[in-house]
């Protein structure tokens, strides 16, 4: 999830655990701890582009990290605040819960989180919430900010913060709960038109769980469509996107290609243009939310070859989302089923 959401969640968890005992310091440290797992990006200058792609949401987003780092941070914060007499165990529990909730909500997004690292590099994801979703963040933030204005011994302070955590958590459960229905719509519509398929993935199409994108792989093609929960019909129109596996198959054992194929989990398209080879990870969509005839893919990687002709590195580019009012108008209309 985005940094604002992670800071808010960390602060709300800190407030829930230690707010009554030490007041606003609990939320402040929760906010700090909520950013810690994402500090893996600081390793970027010491890694090449391929290693960086592998490293992000790896060790610092694992259950192993939660158990290892929590007592360290608990001890350090307790030493810093010895006068509070909170105890390192309480700080350790707080750090552990903040880390666990951080990686948990990251699992809900489509990026993939290596929660079992170093025992497995499997990127775990439920694909049930967009990386930015105000319907998750705003109730959480409202509960936290209201609580911070109340006396730390007030029962109402704990209630409003807990209410914010509860509402936002139910929103995550809503995304999980509606996903089987979304999957069934994509599956039945595709099978009616094209028959059996190899694999399928559905993800929220933008910052909402009411509009979804579906990606279905059959042979060397990815079929994509968009579905709103308010659509009158489940008969979807699919666009076909060629994967062009032949362009990368000769390099699948090369380091860069191997990592890109692992990361994209099969939902990709490859294109050769002006002597360059581009790898598009389709899961992250396009900058027009798939609402126009043409748009730019969000996750673009140029594969860089070394002197021996091996795929040795990648150069990532991220075209900006379109901010034209026409796109947002179409987005709102599409959510409503139009």
List strands and helices in order, with pairings.
Layout: H1 3-22, H2 24-35, H3 49-55, H4 63-80, H5 88-107, H6 134-148, H7 155-194, E1 199-204, E2 211-218, E3 221-228, E4 239-242, H8 246-249, H9 255-264, E5 268-273, E6 276-286, E7 297-305, E8 311-317, H10 325-335
Antiparallel strand pairs: 1-2, 2-3, 3-4, 5-6, 6-7, 7-8
Structure description:
The chain is an alpha+beta fold. The protein has helices at residues 3-22, 24-35, 49-55, 63-80, 88-107, 134-148, 155-194, 246-249, 255-264, 325-335, and strands at residues 199-204, 211-218, 221-228, 239-242, 268-273, 276-286, 297-305, 311-317. Strands 1-2-3-4 form a four-stranded antiparallel sheet, with helices on one face. A four-stranded antiparallel sheet has the order 5-6-7-8, with helices on one face. A hairpin with a 5-residue loop joins strand 7 and strand 8 (311-317). Helix 1 (3-22) runs antiparallel to helix 2 (24-35), helix 1 (3-22) packs antiparallel against helix 5 (88-107) and helix 6 (134-148) packs antiparallel against helix 7 (155-194). The protein is globular and about 65 Å long.
């Amino acid at each position: 999830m985005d940094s604002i959401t992670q800071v808010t969640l960390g602060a709300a968890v800190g407030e829930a655990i230690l707010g009554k005992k030490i007041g606003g310091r609990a939320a402040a440290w929760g906010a700090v701890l909520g950013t810690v797992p994402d500090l893996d990006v600081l390793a970027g200058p010491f890694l090449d582009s391929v290693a960086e792609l592998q490293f992000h949401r790896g060790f610092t987003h694992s259950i192993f990290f939660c158990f290892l780092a929590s007592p360290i941070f608990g001890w350090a914060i307790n030493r810093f605040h010895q006068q509070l007499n909170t105890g390192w165990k309480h700080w350790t529990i707080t750090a552990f819960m903040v880390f666990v909730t951080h990686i948990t909500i990251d699992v809900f997004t489509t990026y993939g989180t290596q929660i079992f690292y170093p025992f497995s590099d499997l990127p775990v994801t439920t694909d049930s919430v967009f990386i930015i979703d105000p319907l998750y963040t705003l109730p959480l933030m409202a509960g936290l900010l209201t609580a911070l204005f109340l006396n730390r011994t007030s029962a109402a302070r704990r209630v409003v913060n807990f209410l914010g955590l509860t509402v936002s958590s139910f929103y995550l459960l809503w995304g999980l709960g509606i996903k089987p229905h979304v999957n069934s719509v994509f599956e039945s519509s595709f099978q009616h038109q094209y028959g059996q398929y190899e694999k399928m993935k559905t993800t929220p199409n933008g910052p909402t769980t009411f509009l979804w994108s579906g990606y279905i792989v059959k042979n060397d093609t990815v079929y994509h469509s968009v579905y709103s929960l308010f659509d009158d019909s489940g008969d979807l129109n699919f666009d076909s996107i060629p994967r062009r596996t032949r362009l990368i198959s000769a390099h699948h054992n090369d380091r860069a290609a191997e990592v890109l194929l692992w990361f994209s989990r099969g939902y990709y398209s490859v294109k050769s243009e002006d002597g360059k080879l581009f790898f598009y990870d389709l899961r992250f969509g396009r900058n027009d939310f798939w609402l126009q005839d043409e748009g730019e893919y969000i996750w673009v990687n140029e594969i860089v070859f070394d002197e021996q002709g091996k795929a040795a590195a990648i150069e990532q580019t991220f075209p900006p989302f379109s901010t034209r009012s026409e796109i947002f108008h179409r987005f709102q209309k599409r959510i409503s089923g139009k």
